[in-house]
Amino acid sequence: MASEAIENYLKAIYSLSRESPTGEAGMKAIATLTGVTVGTASTMVKRMAGAKLAKYERFGGVRLTARGERAAIDVQRRHRLIETFLVETLKLDWSIVHAEAERLEHAISSVVLEALDIHLHHPSVDPHGDPIPGPDGKIRTERGAALSTFAPGSKIRVARITDQGPAFLSFIAEHGLRPGTKAIVAATESAAQSITVHASGYAAVTMAVAAAESIICESA
Amino acid sequence: MASEAIENYLKAIYSLSRESPTGEAGMKAIATLTGVTVGTASTMVKRMAGAKLAKYERFGGVRLTARGERAAIDVQRRHRLIETFLVETLKLDWSIVHAEAERLEHAISSVVLEALDIHLHHPSVDPHGDPIPGPDGKIRTERGAALSTFAPGSKIRVARITDQGPAFLSFIAEHGLRPGTKAIVAATESAAQSITVHASGYAAVTMAVAAAESIICESA
DNA sequence: CAGGTAAGTTTGAATCGTCAAACTTTTTGG
DNA sequence: CCAAAAAGTTTGACGATTCAAACTTACCTG
């Protein structure tokens, strides 16, 4: 098994290369995401390459091998199932569970994990709407587009939130914007780079377009 | 916070000094219990003394300070609540939960722990019948005596099992001997150093007196 | 294209937890 | 009491992970 540290690098490289057009992650970004200096990231990535978890060339981008990707997806499954458990079973607030899951994901065995999966009735998404990979590493493909791409008047349904920060999560939850809830894009103001959304039963909320990038929605 | 390694030494010293008449733990025993060489235990205990978690003199016994004992009890609370959760909520077999809890106890935060405690309705004993310390570190005093001290004909109620080995736990569970169940001491055979117990609804079982030391019972 | 800046690499050192092996103290059985 | 045996201590080394700082390469801008 990969050490706790290595698992964190796997997660970082996985999510970075996923968002990058080239499919590669940069050292600087890896270091920032794992909270480590660039030198350390460089050293560790080299080690991961030796362990056939990552592939890279000096001064080039980093990408995971098939083995590395599978290991990263396993960590993601653990993380998301634990988050779901913390919210569904223990009733913890969704804004704090990310940090808690970050610690537990490295300590849970597959026996406990699968028992958790059964207890939760095999959930397909976590409290943030992120898909939970299956035990085989398969990820249900997701649909939807960033809230920022919808025009005023659009009826939408929130699918997932890609920003895990507690402050942002608490803020949008106060305005009814959680995965599954419906809302209407009330207005967009390009001069102010803002967008206003209104979920029924809640006060309308105006946020920066940049913030709305983190809210993935479908038309409803 | 104490590191994972230190927490394991705390647990070992705590339980060893608890069973010892002098209230002190020996290096050899600490090393054996933590699965480490004697030299390592010696080094680490010295470090713990520096951190004011333990007290000892060269070539003398080890005991915990008040701080160390409190830290050990905290680990024990985490361990036992997690075991209870694994059995009660996730329906895992009690014979394997000790090992699982051993890994999780170092990763769980107090927020998650207290949520677990609420979810389980503040249990006072774990699946082995061991008392769960309160959040304040107080331990409900336990009663009962080893099964080996009861005379033939005694009606007993199993209170707790102090041996955490999966094989032993599975064995006795097959004969109905779990915390809370009632049984009768059918016979004792001093020549064979054995004792026979019969739980209603199960086949009678004969075991060594030494094994019966691990089963704590009350008269019933 | 020439610098300058941003990104990446290397090196030397530190900490933690561990072992093996040499050494020292205590204990214990005759 | 005294020589083994048992228990405990120390030392030197190692792997993992990290940092700071010196150094190298790549990229971008004027």
Features:
41% helix; 220 residues; SH3 type barrels; homodimer; two-stranded antiparallel sheet; 3 domains; alpha+beta; DNA-binding; Arc Repressor Mutant, subunit A; 6-stranded antiparallel sheet; 8 helices
Fraction in beta strands of chain A: 15-25%
Q: Separation of termini of chain A?
A: 43 Å
Q: Looking at this structure, what is the CATH superfamily of the largest domain in chain A?
A: Ferrous iron transport protein A (FeoA)
N-to-C order of helices and strands of chain A: HHHEEHHHEEHEEEHE
Most extensive protein-chain contact, per-chain counts: A-B, 19 and 19 residues
What about the largest sheet of chain A? 6 strands, antiparallel
Percent helix of chain A, as a range, is 40-55%
Per the CATH scheme, the topology name of the largest domain in chain A is SH3 type barrels
Strand order of the biggest β-sheet of chain A: 3-8-4-5-6-7
Which structural class best describes the helix and strand composition of chain A? alpha+beta
What is the CATH top level name of the largest domain in chain A?
Answer: Mainly Beta
Average residue-wise pLDDT of chain A: 93
Number of strands of chain A: 8
CATH architecture identity of the largest domain in chain A = Roll
- Gyration radius over CA of chain A: 19 Å
Uncertain runs of chain A are none
